[in-house]
Amino acid sequence: MSKLSHVHWSSKLTFILAATGSAVGLGNIWKFPYMVGESGGAAFVLVYLLCIALIGLPILVAEWLVGRRGQENPINSMAELARSSGRSKGWVMVGISGVLGAFLILSFYSVIGGWSLSYTLSSVTGAFTGQDADAIGGLFNGMLGSPGQLLLWHSVFMLLVIGIVARGVTKGLEGAVRTLMPALGVLLVVLVGYGMTTGHFGEAVSYLFNPDWSKLTGEVVLAALGHAFFTLSLGMGIMMAYGSYLGQEVNLLKTARTVVIMDTVIALGAGLAIFPIVFANGLDLNSGPGLIFVTLPLAFGNMTGGMLLGLAFFLLLTFAALTSAISLLEPVVEFVEERTPLSRVGATVVAGIATWALGIAALLSFNVWGEVLFFGLNVFDLLDKLTSKFLLPLTGLGVILFVAWRLDKEGVRRELGLEGFSASLWNVVTRYVAPLGVLVVFVSSL
Fold first, then answer.
1. Distance CA 381, CA 25 (A)
2. Closest Cα to residue 273, out of 315, 211, 213?
3. CA distances from 129 to 122, 251, 368 (A)
4. Which of 47, 114, 169, 232 could form a disulfide with 157 if both were Cys (CB 3.0 to 4.6 A apart)?
5. Which helix (H) or strand (E) holds 193?
6. 15-26: pLDDT as tens digits
7. Full-model pTM
8. Helices 306-339 and 12-23 sit at what angle, rounded to 10 degrees?
9. Surface-to-core class of residue 350, CB atoms within 10 Å of its CB (0-12 exposed, 13-18 middle, 19+ buried)
């Protein structure tokens, strides 16, 4: 029996905060608003929400269902459900892929989390104040070029993550999200409030929400498909691990809708916080990650109250990174704890150190290992491509196919409270629409 079989979330609200915290990450703070603005505004949002409904939400529910039925880590849960359903042992590869994906992603995600910590300190010390574009760019490039700086902040970030996860589900994960998610919400409201005073808030609203159907190309629809899948932390073993701590009283479909809505609201709120500052300062929206670490610091360094605003923004970024990072470590820790004699603390330390060590290889690819390439990619990019283009979509596809085609259909229907039209719709979406959507994302990414 699993050592963690008795552990459950203390409340549905806490679980919603944890699942939303996992979904809300660095990508929500800069990538989603940028995609919305460049891809047709409200037109893109509508396509994205349709993709969420037809692909993201069904897979999210499927991962929770597998975790809740298995009551163990993703690998054990998949193995047990395959055995009890009389299915091939090969389905365990879905769980293995998910846990491996979480481990690999956290190794380089922690490096970026370290950047946000570094910039939080820089905001406090006034490092951006009065600097021009070249100086701000020099700060960022200098950080990337310094193995010592990157190692320091990567290590600090991983220590925070290990410290939280080691305390367990109730004291660690729940305690963190109860603090970080409300704090993230408050900081976002403060930044949106500032955006309203810039004189460019209306421009930001128009940029985000005015539908421009002419921009809805096939490429944009594919981007919406891809983001709908990745934004909910699907295919990483996270939601299976989180589902293993769920009781039967939780309605999976209703809870998934709540998480999707909260994730989308926070992502759009980030756009309403960032874009007024960008427009007010005549900055470049097309700078990708540089928007966060070069463009915005330039604005913060040359505006009234910029030090406090910069601090608020990079705290927001750090909190978003932490809530996602603890969820990435959790499935790995759950697996190690259940498959070894190690305690929760021991399992977290072992998993955390292994992740931290791989992260060192990722951070060195920005400097001393810059010329070390695998298939034409440095270590950081290799980890990114391997997970986003292969492990995540294949894991998500495996989960939805298993739940839709290999689990007892009537049992799933009863567990989800489906009947009549809703049951038929679920069958069509999970058996055909969602798998096809994931396949399209997978093939197009190649």
1. 19
2. 315
3. 10, 50, 30
4. 114
5. helix 175-195
6. 999 999 999 988
7. 0.94
8. 110
9. middle
